Amino acid sequence: MDPQILAIMMVVSLFALILLGVPVAFAIAGAGLFFGLIGVDMNMFNLLPARIFGVLTNYTLLAIPLFVFMGILLEKSRLAEKMLDVLGLLSGKKPGGMAIAIIVVGILMGASTGIVGATVVTLTMIALPTLLKRNYSHSVSCGTICASGTLGQILPPSLVLILLADISGEAIGPLFAAALMPGLLLAGCYIVYIVLLSKFAPHHVPPIDEEERSLYSKKELWIEFFKSVAPPFVLIFAVLGSIIGGLAAPTEAASMGALGALLIVFLSKRLTLDILKETLFETMKVTGMIMFVLIASQVFGLSFRGLEGDYLVEDLFAAIPGGMWGSIIFMMLVLFVLGFFLEWIEISYIVLPLVLPIFHAMDIDMIWLGILVALNLQSSFLTPPFGWSLFFLKGVAPKEIKTMDIYKGVLPFIAIQIIVIGLVMVFPQIATWLPKAIGWM
User: Fold this and answer.
1) How much is the average pLDDT of 358-374?
2) pLDDT of 8 over the 80 cut
3) Membrane spanning segments where (predicted)?
C-alpha cells in the first residue's frame, strides 16, 4: 500500500481513537506503532530511544513541574479566594465591578499557574455563587469565569508557550516576551466588554450593595490588598521579568518561583502538610500526563515521517491559494475547528510538528506565528461543544446553571478572541515589539 495512504489512515485512526475516549498518550503511541510497523522500515525505530532520551533530558522542560507546583500551591492555599474578595469589594461600587475583579484575578492566576483547569475550577467555586447571590446574569457570570480562566494559556509562564518553544525550536524567553502584550490586550478587551455591558445592560452586572461594602473600611481593604494581592503580583513580576529580561533561564526562574510561592503561602500562615501533599500529588499528575504525551508523540512523529507524511503535508499547503497568508489562514482555521473537538495538547503534538516545518521553509517569523497559534489554542478551551473550560465550570457549578447558560456566556468572549487574533495577524508588532525592544530579536 502507498505509504502516504497509510499516513492518512494513521491520522484518521488517531482522531477516531481520541473521540472514542482512548487516553491521548495511548491513542498517539498506538496509532503510530500500528501503522509504523505496517509501513515503515524497522531500522527507523532504532532512532526512538534517542528521541525519548532527548525529551526526558531536555533542561528547558524542567520548568514545567516547577511552574505547575507554583501555580497549584497558590490555588490550593486559597490565596485566589482572598484576592477575589478584596478586588471585588474595591471595585464593587460600580456595575460590572465584580466581573472586572474576576478578570484581574484570572490574569494573576493565569500568570502564576498556566493551568486552565485549576484556574477555572477555582474561580467557579469561589466566584460563581457570589455572582449569583449578587444577581449577576447566569450567562455573563459563566462566560466571564470561563474566559478569565483561559488567560493562563497565553500569559507567560503558560505551559502552551513552553511546549510551543519545544516544538518550534524557539527559545522560551522571546516567546514569553512576545505573549505578554497580546495576553494583556485580550484581558483588556474582556474588561472593555464588561464596561460596555455595564453601560448598556447594567441589570446583567449589578454593583455590590452598599450594606456589604460598608462591612469593610477603605483602609482595611487596602491593607488586605497589600497582604493578599501584592505578594503574588510581585512574585509573578519577578519570575517573568527575570526570564524576559534575560537575567535567568526559564528553569532557574521557575525554581525561584516555586520557592517564592512556598514563602508567600508560609508567611500567610496557610501552609500545611496536607496542602503540600496535595500540591505535590497534583504536580506529579499534571507533569506525568504532559511528559507521557511528549514521549508518545515521538512514536507518532517518527512513523508519520517514515510514511512520507511530511511530503503529503507540504503538497497540501502548496495547493492552497494565497501564498504565505493563504497557508497561515488555512492553518489557523484548521486549529480553530480542531479546537471544537480536541484538547490543546493533542492539537499541539499532532498538527504542529507536521505544519511548522513548512512555515520555517517560508522564512516566517516563528515567534509571531507561535503567538498566533497560542491565541488560537486558547480559544479551543471556550468553543462548544467540547471546550474544556465549559466542562470544568459545569462540573462544579450550582444546579441552576444550565449548559445553554454557559454556551451563551462564552460566545462574546470567543468573538473577542477572534478579533484579537485578527489584530495580531494584521499588526505583528503587537507581539514582536517587546522581544525586539529587549534585544531578543
Assistant:
1) 89
2) yes
3) 6-38, 50-74, 98-128, 140-165, 171-196, 225-247, 253-272, 284-304, 324-342, 349-375, 409-431
Please tell me whether the peptide bond between 3 and the residue prior to it is cis, using omega within 30 degrees of 0: no
Q: Which long-range contacts (CB under 8 A, 24 or more apart) does 262-266 make?
A: 262/73, 264/74, 264/79, 264/231, 264/232, 264/235, 265/73, 265/74, 265/77, 265/79
Which of 45-49, 375-379, 396-400 has the largest mean confidence? 375-379
DSSP output for 259-292: HHHHHHHHHTT---HHHHHHHHHHHHHHHHHHHH
Which pLDDT tens digit goes with each residue over 67-107? 778 777 877 777 766 777 777 777 767 788 888 888 888 88
Torsion, CA 23, CA 26, CA 27, CA 32, rounded to 10? 170
Decide: helix, strand or coil at residue 95.
coil
**Residue found under cell 503580583:** 233
Q: Are 325 and 366 in contact (CB under 8 A)?
A: no
- Whose grid coordinates read 460563581? 128
DSSP string, 21-39: T--HHHHHHHHHHHHHHHH
Place of cell 469565569: 145
- Who contacts 330 (Cβ-Cβ below 8 Å, separation ≥6)? 317, 320
- Calpha distance 359→127 (Å, rounded): 42
Q: Could you tell me which residues come within 8 angstroms of residue 136 by beta carbon, excluding any fewer than 6 positions away?
A: 98, 99, 204, 205, 206
